[in-house]
Automatic annotation (TrEMBL):
Source species: Arenibacter certesii
Family matches, as Pfam families: Aminotran_1_2
Cofactor: pyridoxal 5'-phosphate
InterPro entries according to UniProt: Aminotransferase_I/II_large, AON_synthase_class-II, PyrdxlP-dep_Trfase, PyrdxlP-dep_Trfase_major, PyrdxlP-dep_Trfase_small
Keyword hit for Protein biosynthesis: no
Protein name, per record: Aminotransferase class I/classII large domain-containing protein
Length: 261
């Protein structure tokens, strides 16, 4: 095996010395206070069954998309998903990416010229807002009826929707531009049909029921009340969202608390 470069090993050793060395944790069956599965969709049995039935009904038996969407990786399922997303989020157009990271990096690299212009463009990443805020969980921009004032909205599926992928919402011209210039869209294999179907069923579930969102709001209220009751609310950053951050100073103390918990 080729010897690992000394300068790379030095950087790893430095991370260990500073207590910031990353390791892949082993999953457990403890109560989940760390994931982004706000509505429980990631382990929702009804969604899982609906996705399987949807693929069978459509006669889709493929495990992968085989190639990028610009070749032969596009599908009617992709079109159905993007049409549903555009309608649900009140956008002219929607373009699906393989992940939230791909959507962000693809958008920013494709439109670097925006920062050279004197005009201002509003780009909103609603990753942690969808499924949490707004009517039918469509996020604050739709709730405030200002969705058309943004140049682009980025919505990830890996948070409240509990699945894989992301979409960039905007004008049809923006979609056309990204299809032509977003490298993370152009040079990657399309999502497998199962991932596309899961996103479609999850967003459909989100649009048709507010039961999960109401349950989430109740949990947030309960959690905050317990922080006050225990007298530890000062250790947490004030928040009405599903994300509640406990402020702990220093890497050593953070790791000590993590091991204790």
């Amino acid at each position: 095996m080729v010897e690992f470069p000394e300068n790379f090993m030095a950087k790893l050793n430095e991370r260990q010395e500073n207590n910031v060395f990353r390791k892949l944790p082993v999953s457990n069956k403890l109560v989940d206070f760390s994931s982004n599965d706000y509505l429980g969709f990631a382990k929702n049995e009804a969604i899982f069954i609906s996705v399987s039935q949807y693929l069978v009904d459509k006669g889709i038996m493929a495990n992968g998309a085989t190639v990028s969407r610009l070749l032969i990786g596009n599908s009617e399922l992709y079109n159905e998903l993007e049409d549903y997303l555009a309608n649900f989020f009140r956008s002219d157009s929607a373009l699906v990416f393989n992940s939230g990271y791909d959507a962000n990096i693809g958008f920013l690299l494709a439109l670097t010229e925006l920062r050279l212009d004197l005009n201002c463009y509003l780009v909103v990443d609603e990753a942690h807002a969808i499924g949490v805020f707004g009517e039918n969980s469509r996020g604050p921009l739709v709730e405030w009826n200002v969705e058309n004032q943004s140049f682009a909205r980025i919505v990830t599926f890996g948070k409240a929707l509990g699945c894989r992928g992301a979409t960039i919402l905007g004008s049809k011209d923006l979609t056309d531009y990204l299809v032509n210039f977003a490298r993370s869209f152009i040079y990657t294999t399309a999502m497998p049909p199962h991932a596309q179907a899961t996103a479609l069923i999850a967003i459909t579930q989100l649009s048709q029921s507010e039961v999960e969102q109401l349950g989430l709001r109740a949990n947030i209220t309960f959690f905050k009340s317990k922080l006050n009751e225990l007298g530890i609310s000062d250790h947490f950053v004030p928040s009405n969202s599903a994300v509640h951050c406990c402020s702990v100073k220093g890497n050593d103390q953070v790791k000590e608390w993590a091991l204790t918990l």
